[in-house]
Amino acid sequence: MKTEGFLNGFPLHGRGPLGLNQRSVLSMFTKYAERYVLRTPSAGKYLGVNSHDAKIRVSDTPDNAWIFHTHDGAVTHALWIGEVHGETPDVVKLDR
Questions:
Q1: For burial by CB atoms within 10 Å, which of 53, 68, 83, 85 has the most?
Q2: CA distance 81 to 71
Q3: Where does residue 30 rank: exposed (0-12), middle (13-18), buried (19+ CB within 10 A)?
Q4: Residue 42 domain-assigned?
Q5: Is 49 inside a domain boundary?
Q6: Does residue 41 contact residue 81 with C-beta atoms inside 8 Å?
Q7: In a structure prediction context, what are the per-residue pLDDT tens digits for the chain, which is 96 residues long?
C-alpha cells in the first residue's frame, strides 16, 4: 500500500489494509482519552457493573460508573441494555 503523503502512513478517507475506517483509526491517536458513561433517563442514576456478580448497579455519581473510551462502545452497550431492560440509558461524555 502506498503511504507517501499520508498522515501517520494512513490515507484520510476510505478503508485501510485491515478493512478499518481510517478516520476511526486516526482518532485513536489523540492526546486525551475520551470517557463516556451511561445514565438512566428516568432516575438520572449512572450505571456500573458490580464486581461481585457482574450485575448492573446504579450510582448517584459517575465516579463508580462503567467507563467507555469510545462513543461507539457506549452507544452499543446502551442499546443492548435498552433491549433487555426496556429503557435505553443516555450516553454522557465526561469532562477531562
A1: 68
A2: 15
A3: exposed
A4: yes
A5: yes
A6: no
A7: 444 444 444 444 555 555 545 455 445 555 668 899 999 999 999 999 998 998 999 999 999 999 999 999 999 999 999 999 999 999 999 986
The pLDDT value given to residue 33: 80
Give the cell for residue 59.
450510582
**Residue 24 falls within a domain, yes or no?**
no
Q: What share of the chain is helix, strand, coil (3-state, %, to 5)?
A: 30, 20, 50
Q: How far is 14 from 19, CA to CA, in rounded Å?
A: 9
Q: What's the pTM value of the predicted model, to 2 decimals?
A: 0.65
Structural domain of 70? 33-96
**In whole angstroms, what is the distance from residue 27 CA to residue 4 CA?**
20
* E-state strands within the chain: 36-39, 46-49, 56-59, 90-93
66 domain residue, yes or no:
yes
Specify the number of domains making up the chain: 1
What are the grid coordinates assigned to 62, written together? 459517575
